[in-house]
Amino acid sequence: MRTAYSVETVRTAEHELMSRLPEGALMQRAASGLATACAALLRPGRGLYGARIALLVGSGSNGGDALYAGARLARRGAGVTAVLLAPDRTHPGGLAAARAAGVRIVEPEPEPEPERERGAEPPEWERERGTEPPEWEPGPRTATERETAPARDPDPGTQTDGWRGAGDGAGDGKGTGTGTGTGPGIRTGDGTGTGGGSGGGSASGAAADAGAGAGDGAGTGAGDAAVAAVRRAHLVVDGIVGIGGRGGLRPAAARLAEAARASDAVVVAVDLPSGVDADSGETAGAAVRADATVTFGCYKPGLLVDPAAGCTGAVRLVDIGLGPYLPERPALEALQHADVAALLPVPAPESDKYRRGVVGVVAGSARYPGAAVLAVAGALRGGAGAVRYVGPAGDAVVTRFPETLVHAGPPSDAGRVQAWVIGPGLGDGTEARRAMEDVLGSDVPLLVDADGLRLLDRELVRRREAPTVLTPHAGEAAALLGVAREEVEASRLASVRRLAAEFGATVLLKGSTTLVAPAGGKGGRGGDPAVRVNPTGTGWLATAGTGDVLSGVTGSLLAAGLEARDAASAGAYLHGLAGRLAAGREGAPIGASDVASALDAAWRDIRRG
Length: 609
Ligand SMILES: NC(=O)C1=CN([C@@H]2O[C@H](COP(=O)(O)OP(=O)(O)OC[C@H]3O[C@@H](n4cnc5c(N)ncnc54)[C@H](O)[C@@H]3O)[C@@H](O)[C@H]2O)[C@@H](O)CC1
Ligand SMILES: [K+]
Description:
Its EC number is 4.2.1.136, 5.1.99.6. Homotetramer. It comes from Streptomyces lycii. By secondary structure, the protein is α/β, with parallel strands linked by helices. The protein is built from 22 helices and 18 strands. Potassium ion binds next to strand 5 and strand 6.
């Protein structure tokens, strides 16, 4: 199980741990892990001479981590430049260590006043100026380069080795090094990943070698030493803000982050990419887009939830000894193979089809018979002993799956089931509405998907005694919440929690990161179980009908006796893995039927461990 904790919890645990350690020891652990990861990214197994590293240093301890790590790397021969974004508030110990190790210190140029139309609202970062000390501003003095030690660029003419890319194909040609693995491979880290492929590219030092005097092309004045340092670097360390960050990147930082992104440098975020919200996974403005993130002590929810998760690159967790001080219940958790294997229902010798559970599927219509076929295809491979189909597409269903028990309706006349699935391709006609009333009134677990979500009565759902699982995508979730789709996409975690709380139901929010919030929905707080994030998804699943398969497989798991949150998260896990297996290691377009057909392979893969 991969677990993530809120900032508040992390701070409490750090406080406890720090009180038992000599001053500064924790930061040294973090810096040591960070330096090791950076060295591995730069030149696995080789020295650091000739490597150029730029540190982007903010006003807090995140900048302190970067400075201490930079000092370690400088002592090992790298040419390190620290760009101080808040020169008056830089971590003093980190700065002293960096100076002592020969790190070159520079400041960015002052920001030009933003031009705004008369009467226009100031941006958020500027509005804050009135209320908070402007510690994030680049400093009142002119940004002349302050050489505090001789520049250490021992080998300015030579180009470093190319970084061995290990990307998942979604990158931009910057390798992140085999040492950290890749997006999906790293995120799941348990055999679910398909990462570790080729891709990546070699770091071209040539363009970067243009030198400090070259125009920066990034919006600051020519000769800006900070931008030049970033552009020349082979590796940029983002120590702008960590868990203390609020809002998006300020303009000076955003410009440097952009320069880093546009360069060939590998961008490594310290603890989390600056500009993303650690607790919610939201990005309220510009954020660093890292190739790799080195996080300390535990995962933070933002590292696992989009859109923030899209900024992390490969994630490496550095153990700083926080484990014993973290509470049992995280804010967010991601199941791994072993967790799902323990949940999947396996028939015992005395099992029969009824004891394994019967799942009823109310789906399809004259117009959409395919949705019924796909939902049944998923249900047949979800572990229940039998699938009962109810609706007008019985012929299409038995033609494809003769093992299905079919019934024209209504659901309450179809015979006993242990769970209902309703919604895929259902339409919104009279029959559909009646069927919905029927299953809402049943005393067994109920999964509502697709068209069914449009027919939902919130109060009736709340009043149900048996569990209800809702499986909306962002658009459907937006309609249920009465907000714009973009709002749901920008705040997935908050949205899924809110839906779960409002409907008193377990909610599986599908999408780039699929989330499962337990009924009650305040995962990790107030005693509710954690929200789950699914680690197995793939973009190849974004195709018509895959949601129907998911509802079938999840309903089948409900019928087999899994609790709602477990059924939804195991269903999403199986479905995501089946999608990956169907798409193959290299990736290829797949149809929903392919996903259903790969579900048995996903089961075997999980049971193999
Ligand atoms: N507490 C500890 O013992 C440890 C902390 N560690 C590091 O410390 C970090 C947390 O340190 P801090 O609490 O000092 O917080 P941060 O380093 O995250 O930064 C907070 C500072 O940045 C300013 N700020 C907030 N949002 C900003 C933005 N968008 N742009 C620019 N400046 C902004 C704040 O006003 C504050 O001065 C962790 O993320 C981790 O990197 C690690 O060294 C491990 C040990
Ligand atoms: K950071």
